[in-house]
């Protein structure tokens, strides 16, 4: 059985761990860089991207996760997607830069704090209930290798580039483990 770590610096860690287990892998909360050696895939959860970014740098995860990504799959959700992006709209310092997109934070504006959409996602299936909370949106796809798996208002909300899968919404907040199963499959490949 594969082991998937959830970066446990800040944000929705426990929910992802439950879904990983439902999807048939073993889940572990990653708090120390050394733990990266013992996992087969990593999830960077939602939360607050500035805080996650700061803590990553403080504990050396910025360098260690970039190394990890050379060999193993990573999935980022919401703030995790922001942390993976190459560019953040508005001059904010980017973090891991593992995904060739430009990302806009809180892209739905203050009046739309959260909403749900049913998405059809290749490799996942139909009617996946996607929960968006102060969600980012992809402003620009910056590489031809990026597969856009679904959009909302014509803007990409879930993308894959090689071993990196990222989405604006929170797949851990429903009972539907199909996205986590897709990630487990990426890890098993
Ligand atoms: N708005 C948050 C940020 O910019 C992300 C929100 C989330 O992860 N639910 O970091």
Automatic annotation (TrEMBL):
EC nos: 4.3.3.6, 3.5.1.2
A Pfam family of this chain: SNO
Binding site for L-glutamine: 47-49, 105, 133-134
Transmembrane segments: none
Cellular component annotations (GO), alphabetically ordered: cytosol; glutaminase complex
Pathway annotation: Cofactor biosynthesis; pyridoxal 5'-phosphate biosynthesis
Catalytic activity: L-glutamine + H2O = L-glutamate + NH4(+); aldehydo-D-ribose 5-phosphate + D-glyceraldehyde 3-phosphate + L-glutamine = pyridoxal 5'-phosphate + L-glutamate + phosphate + 3 H2O + H(+)
Record-level GO BP terms: L-glutamine catabolic process; pyridoxal phosphate biosynthetic process; pyridoxine metabolic process
Catalytic residues (positions): 78 (nucleophile), 170 (charge relay system), 172 (charge relay system)
Coiled-coil stretches noted in the UniProt entry, renumbered to this chain: none
Keywords: Glutamine amidotransferase, Hydrolase, Lyase, Pyridoxal phosphate, Transferase
NCBIfam families: PLP_synth_Pdx2 (TIGR03800)
PANTHER family: PYRIDOXAL 5'-PHOSPHATE SYNTHASE SUBUNIT SNO (PTHR31559), PYRIDOXAL 5'-PHOSPHATE SYNTHASE SUBUNIT SNO1-RELATED (PTHR31559:SF0)
Function description: Catalyzes the hydrolysis of glutamine to glutamate and ammonia as part of the biosynthesis of pyridoxal 5'-phosphate. The resulting ammonia molecule is channeled to the active site of PdxS.
Self-association and partners: In the presence of PdxS, forms a dodecamer of heterodimers. Only shows activity in the heterodimer.
Protein name: Pyridoxal 5'-phosphate synthase subunit PdxT
Species this chain originates from: Desulfuribacillus alkaliarsenatis
Organism ancestry: Bacteria, Bacillati, Bacillota, Desulfuribacillia, Desulfuribacillales
